[in-house]
Amino acid sequence: MSKPKLLQFMENQQTEFTDMAQKIWENPQLAYEEEFACQLQMAKLKDEGFRIQTPVAGISTAFVAEYGSGKPIIGILGEYDALPGLSQTVDVVQNPIISQGPGHGCGHNLLGTAGVEAIIALKKVMDAENRAGTIRYYGCPAEEVLSGKSYMAQAGVFDDLDCALTWHPGTSNIPVNMSMQALVSIKFHFKGIPAHAGQSPHAGRSALDAVELMNVGANYLREHVLDGSRIHYVITNGGLAPNVVPEDASVWYFLRAATKKQVDEMLRRVQKIAEGAALMTETSVTSELLANIYQTLPNEALNDLMVENMEIAGPTPFSEEEQEFARKLVSTIQADEIEELLPITPRNDKSLYGKSMGGSSDVGDVSWITPLGQIMTTCAPKGVEFHTWQATSSFGSSIGFKGMHLAAKTMALTALDLLSNKDQVLDKAKQEFQRSTMGKPYVPGIGEFNQEIKV
Fold first, then answer.
1. How far from the centroid of its chain's Cα atoms is residue 94's Cα?
2. Is residue 227 in some structural domain?
3. Please, which of 89, 112, 389, 395 could form a disulfide with 107 given CB 3.0 to 4.6 Å?
4. 220 closest CA partner among 184, 273, 181
5. By three-state DSSP, how is residue 84 classified?
6. Is residue 93 within 8 Å of 73, Cβ to Cβ?
7. pTM
């Protein structure tokens, strides 16, 4: 089956996968609770003849679907968790379906579905042409809390891959030649002594005072971290009432840096700040490490091949109705200039290769285990930011679905090339991977999965 025939097969099956993405968009579920999407995708892959492994690492919404045997082993990564508070209809005005309900403001309804679409198309080719090799789809939970793939990595499910492919919904068609930042997610819980805040404040020891002093210390630390590093926090528990000296208070931190080594050093200093705040207030402090992920290593050899196949798969024209929807949606965003949708032609900007961007993803852990290729496709108009109601609206629209199908075709075509190691790309990707990691082994940053942890 040639590439044109593969693409024709995918064209004929688009409606089915549009429906899958739509259903997941209509049933958004948060990290580690993605039962609807997980079961829907597993059922489809099982019906298509894939072998299913689940749970993975003790996580009920993590699974691996495999077909074929022998080398090479090609993986495609999928995600399907939603975000809190981003419920939204497909509309150009803010209109939540459920007030404060979850929504797919990062497009994971599209991300995982494209992987399923691509892997099933690959199986058709392997069956038709009696091709050797193993293909896998990874159903990965909880990317939004940056730990699902870390737990799966501990279970060793990525260890024997020759490479992995993934994508993310975006506002243009590009290879992800940039590195996403390493990140630590950690909560600090302070314990004090309650007292009547008016009658006997001297008898109390305020856990909230400790939180606030910690935040002051962390804010002073901002001057003394490397450029591009970030410190974010929210107070998740500040006490129960103003007239009670708070016995319990908690603060949740995200620390970001260009490399895991740098973010681990930031964590060491922030932990000392927490200890200092506890000493100053005569409280005690414990911490809860929720995520500790690596920076993402781009792989130019794989990304170049994905761009080549994106050009074969494209272009994907947008209708005038879709263009008008995009213009109206972008007009709701405060900006000096409203831009049209970016052109379909992919931009392979080599000047971006290896540079660090502000975001983070647990896909970084996978990139330290096996060579990783990654693209973005146009699923929302330029100007729409992720994690907003405008993004939820876009990712439930026909614009989002068109970008999803382009990503699926790109991954399927690329994996088809990799099964035969076209132009020795796999060899080049592995050599590049060794240079990028400098031979350092992947070491998980967090312990085993605990179902009781709520984030």
1. 24
2. yes
3. 395
4. 273
5. coil
6. no
7. 0.93
Phi, psi angles (nearest 5°) of residue 24: -65, -40
Q: What is the CATH number of the domain that holds 225?
A: 3.30.70.360
Q: What does the alpha-carbon distance between residue 87 and residue 411 come to, in Å, rounded to a whole number?
A: 29
Around Cβ 33, how many Cβ atoms within 10 Å? 16
What is the total residue count of the chain? 455
From the CB of residue 85, how many other CB atoms can be counted at a distance below 10 Å? 15
pLDDT in tens, 208-264: 999 999 999 999 999 999 999 999 999 999 999 999 999 999 999 999 999 999 999
Residue 404 belongs to what domain range?
3-180+295-437
d(CA 88, CA 111): 18
Q: What is the dihedral of CA 18, 22, 23, 25, to 10 degrees?
A: 140
How far is CA 430 from each of CA 71, 365, 441, rounded to the nearest angstrom?
A: 14, 16, 14
Tokens of 341: 């949708």
Q: What is the dihedral of CA 397, 400, 401, 404, to 10 degrees?
A: -170
**156-178 confidence digits (pLDDT tens):** 999 999 999 999 999 999 999 98
